[in-house]
């Protein structure tokens, strides 16, 4: 009987361990009730069930011997001891069988889990290899979800807004003072049109207005406004800035920046304001001319560095020319623009060791 108890105890321990192990697996759902039913199914038959008679173990040896003598040639009835041994052997066999089944089930579960893991890994790898979906949005602004920090996410072609290392605007400081060549202005009174394009007020110029710098001629395409100024000089910002965008024959940009400060009214700016269309997106094409020379300051000293467009797609390799002397505009002129665009400036970008030159 003691052997029987030890055997059951062993089996229980093995079973509990196997159930606990199975619980670790993502594919097993063991329950206490299953565990109990397993025990029921292999519980050994009681001595009563095996051979009837409820006699105790005491004195069984004497009875065995007596039984041997009585048996003669006929198959003699089993002694209590033999019955117990037989029950033990049966129990052992059933335990072995059960353990083998459990082992096989465990192996199958482990194999299924390994297969599932492998498949999940393969799926994750395939996903990682897939290029990210292309974005092709066009709606951008200066605040929130569509603001400068997210421009590169709106359209895949605007990636330079995030990854570029020659971006504009910058805080212009520590310039190298050199004898910079004069910018040659070849501007004339020209036809123009005005549009509030949803990002700024933009004036598109008729052809024939050029600047020459570094032996290269750039034609004025358009000018527009930002509030506050995008660029800073030694950390100082200005109330507004005008950007005159030029392009050469090979499509290279040169942007001339005119910083605006409060002062007397600016006649060219007044001409633009006078011709603002009533609706956003509409274009007004007045039957008058505008002379871009009227925008320029008296002194022609400037800072220069290589940067980018300050709006998407943030194209780099743009030659920046920032005039040192600010241009004046009246508070009323400034106020008018601020009603349309209280804030339309890209934040300062890292200089990343770029060379800045300035007129002596
Ligand atoms: Zn601009």
From TrEMBL:
Keyword terms of this UniProt record: Lyase, Metal-binding, Signal, Zinc
Record-linked CDD domains: alpha_CA_prokaryotic_like
Pfam families linked: Carb_anhydrase
Basic and acidic residues composition-biased segments: 60-86
InterPro entries: Alpha_CA_prokaryot-like (IPR041891), CA_dom (IPR001148), CA_dom_sf (IPR036398), Carbonic_anhydrase_a-class (IPR023561)
E.C. number: 4.2.1.1
Molecular function terms from GO: carbonate dehydratase activity; zinc ion binding
Chain residue ranges for the region called Disordered: 40-90
Reaction(s) catalysed (UniProt annotation): hydrogencarbonate + H(+) = CO2 + H2O
Segment forming the signal sequence: 1-22
The keyword Coiled coil appears for this protein: no
Protein's UniProt keywords contain Cell cycle: no
The family this protein is said to belong to: Belongs to the alpha-carbonic anhydrase family.
Protein name: carbonic anhydrase
Organism: Pseudoduganella rivuli
């Amino acid at each position: 009987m003691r052997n029987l108890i030890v055997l059951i105890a062993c089996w229980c321990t093995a079973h509990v361990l196997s159930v606990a192990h199975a619980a670790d697996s993502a594919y097993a759902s063991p329950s206490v009730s299953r565990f109990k039913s397993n025990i029921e199914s292999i519980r050994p038959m009681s001595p009563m069930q095996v051979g009837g008679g409820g006699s105790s173990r005491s004195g069984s040896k004497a009875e065995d011997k007596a039984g041997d003598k009585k048996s003669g040639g006929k198959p003699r009835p089993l002694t209590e001891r033999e019955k117990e041994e037989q029950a033990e052997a049966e129990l052992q066999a059933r335990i072995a069988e059960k353990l083998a089944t459990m082992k096989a089930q465990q192996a199958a579960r482990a194999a299924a889990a390994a297969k599932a893991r492998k498949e999940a890994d393969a799926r994750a790898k395939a996903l990682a290899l897939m290029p990210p979906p292309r974005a092709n949005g066009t709606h951008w602004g200066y605040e929130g979800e569509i603001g400068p920090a997210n421009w590169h996410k709106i359209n895949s072609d605007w990636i330079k807004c995030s990854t570029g290392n020659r971006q504009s605007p910058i805080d212009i400081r520590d310039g190298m003072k050199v004898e910079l060549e004069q910018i040659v202005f070849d501007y004339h009174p020209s036809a123009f049109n005005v549009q509030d394009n949803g990002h700024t007020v933009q004036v598109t110029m008729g052809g024939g207005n050029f600047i020459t710098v570094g032996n290269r001629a750039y034609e004025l395409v358009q000018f527009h406004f930002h509030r506050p100024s995008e660029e800073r000089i030694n950390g100082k910002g200005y109330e507004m800035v005008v950007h005159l965008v030029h392009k050469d024959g090979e499509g290279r940009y040169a942007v001339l920046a005119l910083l605006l400060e409060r002062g007397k009214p600016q006649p060219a700016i007044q001409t633009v304001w006078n011709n603002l269309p009533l609706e956003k997106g509409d274009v007004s094409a007045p039957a008058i001319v505008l002379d871009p020379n009227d925008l320029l300051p008296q002194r022609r000293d400037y800072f220069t560095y290589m940067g980018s467009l300050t709006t998407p797609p943030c194209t780099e390799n743009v030659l920046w020319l920032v005039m040192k002397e600010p241009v004046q505009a009246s508070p009323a002129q400034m106020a008018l623009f601020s009603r349309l665009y209280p804030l339309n400036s890209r934040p300062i970008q890292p200089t990343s060791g770029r060379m800045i030159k300035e007129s002596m």
